[in-house]
Design goal:
The structure is a homodimer of 206-residue chains. The first copy, chain A, is 67% helix and 0% strand. The first copy, chain A, has helices spanning 4-22, 29-36, 50-74, 79-96, 98-106, 113-140, 148-160, 162-165, 174-187. The structure holds a DNA duplex (30 and 30 nucleotides).
Chain lengths: 206, 206
DNA sequence: GTTTACCAATCAAACGGTTGTTTGGTGGAG
DNA sequence: CTCCACCAAACAACCGTTTGATTGGTAAAC
């Protein structure tokens, strides 16, 4: 009973929850051990070090995000549809794994430089996915010729910040939130000059 | 020379820099004292506790932001112009006091509950400022009838995230970044249906 | 203009407590 | 009989904070 794999997963889940709620440095090995009802020394049967544990959680977070979003970017949907789905999926993923995503998004500076570089590489990879969609949209003429880099940051900020305030009992589902975000990014806030309303998407172009 | 006030400010500045770079819990009183070339016990001549110091830094951060942005919201400019200026000013403030703003935006959970509530009240106050501009824009018919609350969060995420990546030698000034952000939020990314280009603002409406 | 009193700024040293980690042992299940 | 999962105990290091003494300068008293 409680074979290695499941017990280890319990450890990761407990650690993710504690790290996301109290922060990495404010969480002691004691805290984690208490959650599993074992002594803190026993944790080292499963992990190599506290920081190694943090790294594993963060890597789990980014890779999940990458796996969920990459198919969208690499599909042959039109750029505006890609962007809509990307934003929605990113939001949904945060809502789905809030603890892991919060740790990934919040604890980068708690890693020692070598491990931090690793995670930064993943993050860069993700940023490039987003940026590619923007660039594609501009090339198609679907998007206005904006500053790719800045729009990427604007977009990432919008969706990454979700971990700071999202609650499952907030009235709106993650899908709905993502849809609103996508709508604002594509159409902007201004009324009038544009058609404006949130009319359903027509899978048209090229 | 080095009267109480200036020496104390040195302490606050050093602490803000360390907290923003390494994080609150990863920074020891020793680290701060080293920066001022005194012993760590001597810090308590200026502050009451480490957490009291953190609170002071965070309060400084939010209040600065509030002071810089409130005049814009309470002016009698049209809503779209208010929003443009708000976004730009928020970005500029982060670029102006990156350490204090990073501590404010990153270390909320390092505060004990009573002090955290205080800062949350300030944050709520700021959120309401932003939300008021959105609501106003919708009431004027300047903005589309979007979900106020969600758009507020989208906007805050976009500008708050700036502390994570902004660097003064990044090619663009904070003003320019803020202007791009404002443009995207107002007009959206889509080309075509709208007039589209970043034409200068006409102070028109009602 | 010297003495006296004061006070801000800092040192020196200690306090109990907690930290992450290591080592060697132990019980029980397969 | 083996080996996984955990215990028990210790380790040195560091933590935030307190206390009492010690400077150096400044301002008032004589």
């Amino acid at each position: 009973m409680a074979n290695e794999t499941t017990r280890r997963k319990e450890l990761l889940v407990a650690a993710a929850r504690l790290f996301s709620r109290k922060g990495y440095h404010a969480t002691s090995m004691q805290d984690i051990a208490d959650e599993l009802n074992i002594l803190r020394g026993s944790l080292y049967h499963y992990i190599e070090s506290k920081e190694g544990l943090l790294y594993e959680l963060m890597e789990l977070g980014v890779r999940t995000l990458l796996e969920q979003v990459r198919p969208i970017v690499e599909s042959d949907l039109p750029p505006d549809e890609k962007l809509t789905r990307l934003i929605r999926q990113h939001t949904v993923t945060i809502a789905q794994y809030p603890d892991f995503m919060a740790v990934f998004l919040h604890e980068l500076k708690s890693l020692s430089p070598p491990r931090r570089e690793q995670i930064l590489a993943y993050r860069k990879e993700y940023e490039n996915l987003v940026r590619r969609v923007i660039a594609e949209g501009i090339a198609w003429g679907t998007f206005r010729p904006v500053n790719e880099r800045m729009v990427t940051f604007a977009l990432l900020g919008m969706v990454n910040w979700v971990y700071q305030w999202y609650s499952p009992d907030g009235g709106l589902s993650a899908e709905e939130i993502g849809a609103i975000f996508g709508d604002v990014v594509l159409h902007g806030l201004l009324a009038g000059e544009c058609a404006g309303e949130v009319r359903p998407h027509e899978p048209s172009p090229q």
